[in-house]
């Protein structure tokens, strides 16, 4: 599902309009049909049909993905349920190498003939494309794993929770927000289950069950006298978890200017806090532009990491494959080859990760059958690696893929996508208060807001949900009209302090877009609260 | 076959509705076929053909609605999908904002379908891409581009007898050309209903020219400048404005269209009087659907007349509640221009900046519609009516509302993506920082 469709469905577009109809991106199904899965033995038989058909037509490598993608949305505003949608998308994609070139085809006709035809078409396309080939595909070696499986370590399958319970939760969130002073309250619960089967001529048959959850709300309060309005979005993170994400325990909470959530989320509590903060936002002081030391909460910093570290270290962007859409990268190969490109300060360690429990990127194996792992991308401030898949590994001297291959549907061809890219927490014990107390003139930013970055990932501008002025080591009240601008390399070199592991939290997105035709992927970014010195803050207030 | 004629679509919809036992039922049917080629580093990277067709049923008992979709069209499947929608409707909570399906309407015949575009095959696509690659290679540039075409149809029918059908064709092309050193970049993007209007060779030449001329860009100080926005850049800003012409969010007080103390800015002079914006599904350069998703006829609608806001769009629920006509949201948006060419606008500029396009535009403040984003793929300094030299890209922080108050001159409007917009000369456009990106 694309971000645009989601915004439309959720009424989160610029106009925040009502939903006229259910958009169609899959087949809608009865909730009861969402609990089962397809027998792996049957999937293996189907996969073998494709593998054999492709081989008989001359493919030198084939992989098959059989996917059943389930989504559930519950969408509410104030005291109304606007939409409940259950969708299913089921089919098979075959990717082959023939004559040294890639070919891909997909089908939802899941009988032997339909599958064989798709495999044959993939080979025909590969042969057609090979006429325009500049150099043959070079795949990093990959051993077959035989018949294996991986299940996301969830505690409660959210699809098993009755819809009524979900509706009741969201309506109680809206009610609490309205009672707390918000004029409008929208809330959404978005659930995903990817049941994916992968098979390849390397000898892997991999069955995986992946779950994601994203509860979120957005509140608006209007000051009728001035005509001004303010919004406050939920501080939740989309997670690779089951319904247990919504069952917060005291040990999952961190107290501060508002309650922060670590691995579990208390939606009702956050909505109550948000409603109160809306009033403060309306009367907050407009920021004086200038240089400030920024303390960035993980609920905000994830997006800055995503845009300024995640994207420029995607190897396909570095090489120019995304030049016409997502852009290229300032982290060119010569900077990596020099082994001394100073990306950030010595305390900056950023790593690629496809395994962290509860993260959106966590899977057992990627979409080309590579077992997932972690690796350093920025080590002690220096660029040491990128994100690569099997046909790119040789370009950066690797003899195996980093397991970053993903397709957003059975009908989409898999390609390099961002793993979780996270900032290692500090090694010295430090709380948020420890960070704030050393700041003379600063701003503490919580939650993600407006975001924009150039196509090579140098210049960015970010906003947030809550801005607090820091004066002489103390929080001195709320600010508004805040956005900061920086250059990626300067920004990460201005990183001077961070909290320890006990503050490490994940943020993330369901809608990282790349490719033409565009595909969406889900990715998390972890960090602890972090300090950046002397960052340029602008005032975004205007009169029209 | 994914493209059904009006009669074929009508027959399937009629059959589907015959199975309905709900109080109200609406069925929609749509299909498309087409293909694409993606290229990068002067070689094709992926190519695909896509054909899809689907049917969606929405059944309502009282104010409880359920929806289901299917991609099989035999009688048993059609009956099954109706039963499933009805089961879901019985389980659904009541929607107090449900509005009864529409009475039958009359629509003019759409002019959006062009047979020549519908006839495009993989060879034709490859031929168009080869021309683009040839230009890039000759200019010693690296091209990355995307060419995609589709033919589609959409039809709806409801239990009150409304029936509507549209079909259209679309071809879109974009290419980025960069020099080997990575110091210059150019871009073009075009969409048409009629493939005959697309010249990938000429367009890639324009992109290549920009790439070559934008190399060795100089940095100048950020600040307020007179800018000339090429249609692509102007479109990027306008898209964000037009999406906000929504009555409900304005009435609710949470839009730039809301008025202090309540009400909306309908009837107010919000922009410079040179600004005229309308939508028209029958504009020959930008033909589109003649009805909105719920069956409302799309008519020529004036949104801004001489800078005054003339209309806002409504959902049928909100229009009923406010007791006004339910004008559907704008689809084919046209901003009128003048007669000057881009070159003439440049000629008449003492000091200014020519912007080819913007990138990564995001809303900063919904209250003022303040947007941020960056220039890209060819930004040039103008002095005494001439392009003097390429300049480094800027980040801007500007509201299209302020921008359309600062209009100095408008050039000849042309189609850019899915809008028709003129090149614009705007004073005091706010650039807030420099970017090293090329």
- What is the C-alpha radius of gyration of chain B, as a whole number of Å? 24 Å
Number of domains of chain A: 2
Helix content of chain B: 10-25%
Beginning-to-end CA distance, first to last residue of chain B: 44 Å
- CATH T-level topology of the largest domain in chain A: PmbA/TldD fold
Distance between the termini of chain A: 36 Å
**Count of individual domains of chain B:** 2
Quaternary structure state of the chains depicted = heterodimer
Question: Topology of this structure?
Answer:
The complex is a heterodimer of chains A (544) and B (438).
Chain A (H helix, E strand, L loop, with lengths): L2 H7 L17 E2 L11 H17 L4 E17 L2 E19 L2 E7 L4 H19 L15 E6 L11 H17 L4 E17 L3 E20 L4 E6 L19 E2 L5 E2 L5 H17 L1 E2 L3 E7 L1 H13 L4 H5 L13 H5 L12 E4 L20 E6 L2 E2 L21 E2 L8 E2 L3 E4 L8 H5 L4 E13 L5 E13 L2 E7 L1 E6 H6 L1 E4 L6 E10 L4 E9 L2 E10 L5
Chain B lengths: L5 H13 L5 E17 L2 E19 L2 E7 L4 H17 L23 H4 L3 H17 L2 E18 L4 E17 L5 E8 L7 H14 L9 E7 L1 H12 L4 H5 L25 E3 L21 E5 L2 E2 L6 H7 L10 E3 L6 H6 L3 E15 L4 E14 L2 E5 L3 E5 L1 H4 L3 E4 L3 E3 L2 E3 L2 E11 L4
Parallel strand pairs in B: 7-12, 11-18
Antiparallel strand pairs in B: 1-2, 1-4, 2-3, 4-5, 5-6, 7-19, 8-9, 8-11, 9-10, 12-13, 13-14, 13-15, 15-19, 16-19, 17-18
Helix pairs in contact in B: 4-5
């Amino acid at each position: 599902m694309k971000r645009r469709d989601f915004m439309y469905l959720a009424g989160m577009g610029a106009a925040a309009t009502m939903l006229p109809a259910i958009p169609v991106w899959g087949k809608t199904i009865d909730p009861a049909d969402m609990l089962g899965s397809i027998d792996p033995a049957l999937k293996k038989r189907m996969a073998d049909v494709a593998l054999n058909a492709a081989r008989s037509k001359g493919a030198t490598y084939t992989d098959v993905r059989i996917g059943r993608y389930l989504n559930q949305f519950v969408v509410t505003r104030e005291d109304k349920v606007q939409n409940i949608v259950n969708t299913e998308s089921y089919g098979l994609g075959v990717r082959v190498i023939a004559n040294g070139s890639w070919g891909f085809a997909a089908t939802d006709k899941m009988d032997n003939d339909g599958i064989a035809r798709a495999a044959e078409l993939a080979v025909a396309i590969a042969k057609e494309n090979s006429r325009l080939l500049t150099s043959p595909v070079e795949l990093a070696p990959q051993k077959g794993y035989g018949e294996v499986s991986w299940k996301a370590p969830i505690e409660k399958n959210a699809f098993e929770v009755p819809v009524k319970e979900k509706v009741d939760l969201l309506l109680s969130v809206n009610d609490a927000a309205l009672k707390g002073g918000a004029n409008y309250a929208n809330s959404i619960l978005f659930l995903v289950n990817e049941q994916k089967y992968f098979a390849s001529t390397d000898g892997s048959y991999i069955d995986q069950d992946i779950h994601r959850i994203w509860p979120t709300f957005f509140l608006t309060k209007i000051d009728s006298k001035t005509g001004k309005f303010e919004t406050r979005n939920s501080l939740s993170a989309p997670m690779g978890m089951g319904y247990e994400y919504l069952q917060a325990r005291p040990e999952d909470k961190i107290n501060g200017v508002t309650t922060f959530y670590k691995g579990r989320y208390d939606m009702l509590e956050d909505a109550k806090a948000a409603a109160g903060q809306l009033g403060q936002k309306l009367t907050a002081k407009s920021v004086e532009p200038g240089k400030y030391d920024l303390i960035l909460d993980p609920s905000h910093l994830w997006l800055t990491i995503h845009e300024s570290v995640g994207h420029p270290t995607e190897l396909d962007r570095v090489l120019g494959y995304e030049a016409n859409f997502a852009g290229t990268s300032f982290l060119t190969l010569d900077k990596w080859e020099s082994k001394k490109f100073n990306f950030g300060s010595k305390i900056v360690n950023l790593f690629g990760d496809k395994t962290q429990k509860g993260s959106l990127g966590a899977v057992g194996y990627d979409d080309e059958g590579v077992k997932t792992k972690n690796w350093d991308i920025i080590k002690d401030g220096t660029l040491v690696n990128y994100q690569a898949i099997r046909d790119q590994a040789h370009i950066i001297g690797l003899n195996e893929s980093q397991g970053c291959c993903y397709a957003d549907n059975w009908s989409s061809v898999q390609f390099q996508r961002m793993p979780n890219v996270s900032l290692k927490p500090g090694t010295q014990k430090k709380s948020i208060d420890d960070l704030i107390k050393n700041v003379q003139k600063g701003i503490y930013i919580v939650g993600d807001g407006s975001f924009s970055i150039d196509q090579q990932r140098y210049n960015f501008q970010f906003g947030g949900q809550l801005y607090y002025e820091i004066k002489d080591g103390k929080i001195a009240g709320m600010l508004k009209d805040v956005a900061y601008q920086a250059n990626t390399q300067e920004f990460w070199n201005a990183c001077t302090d961070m909290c320890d592991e006990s503050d490490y939290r994940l943020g993330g997105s369901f809608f990282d877009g790349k490719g033409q035709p565009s595909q969406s992927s889900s990715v998390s970014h972890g960090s602890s609260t972090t300090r950046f010195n002397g960052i340029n803050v602008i005032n975004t207030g205007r009169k029209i | 076959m994914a493209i059904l004629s009006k009669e074929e679509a009508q027959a399937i919809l009629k059959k589907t509705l015959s199975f309905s036992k709900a109080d109200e039922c609406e069925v929609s049917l749509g299909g498309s076929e087409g293909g694409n080629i993606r290229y990068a580093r002067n070689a094709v990277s992926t190519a695909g053909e896509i054909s899809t067709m689907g049917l969606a049923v929405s059944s309502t008992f009282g104010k409880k609605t359920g929806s289901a979709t299917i991609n099989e069209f035999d009688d048993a499947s059609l009956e099954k999908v109706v039963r499933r929608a009805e089961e879901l409707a019985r389980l659904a909570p009541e929607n107090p904002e449900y509005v009864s399906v529409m009475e039958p309407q009359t629509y003019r015949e759409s002019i959006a379908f062009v047979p020549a575009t519908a006839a495009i095959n993989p060879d034709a696509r490859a031929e168009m891409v080869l021309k683009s690659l040839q230009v890039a290679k000759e200019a010693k540039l690296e091209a990355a581009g995307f060419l995609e075409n589709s033919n589609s149809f959409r039809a709806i029918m409801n239990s009150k007898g409304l029936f509507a059908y549209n079909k259209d064709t679309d071809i879109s092309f974009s290419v980025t050309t960069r020099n080997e050193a990575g110091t210059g970049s150019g871009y073009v993007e075009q969409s048409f209903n009629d493939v005959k209007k697309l010249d990938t060779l000429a367009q890639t030449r324009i992109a290549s020219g920009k790439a070559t001329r934008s190399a060795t860009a100089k940095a100048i100080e950020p600040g307020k400048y007179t800018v000339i926005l090429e249609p692509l850049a102007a479109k990027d800003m306008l898209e964000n404005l037009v999406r906000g012409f929504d009555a409900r969010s304005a009435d609710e007080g949470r839009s730039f269209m809301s008025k202090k103390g309540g009400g909306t800015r309908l009837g107010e002079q919000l922009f410079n009087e040179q600004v005229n914006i309308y939508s028209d599904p029958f504009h020959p350069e930008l033909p589109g659907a003649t009805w909105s998703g719920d069956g409302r006829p799309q008519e020529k609608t004036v949104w801004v007349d001489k800078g005054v806001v003339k209309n806002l769009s409504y959902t049928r629920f909100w229009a009923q509640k406010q007791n006004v006509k339910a004008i559907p949201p704008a689809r084919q948006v046209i901003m009128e221009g003048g007669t000057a060419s881009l070159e003439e606008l440049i000629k008449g500029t003492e000091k200014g900046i020519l912007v080819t396009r913007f990138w990564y535009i995001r809303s900063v403040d919904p209250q003022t519609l303040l947007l941020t984003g960056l220039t890209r793929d060819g930004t040039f300094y103008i002095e005494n009516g001439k392009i003097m030299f390429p300049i480094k890209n800027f980040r801007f922080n500007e509201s299209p509302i302020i921008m359309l108050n600062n209009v100095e001159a408008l050039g000849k409007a042309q189609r850019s993506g899915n809008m028709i917009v003129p090149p614009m000369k705007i004073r005091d456009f706010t650039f807030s920082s420099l970017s090293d990106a090329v």
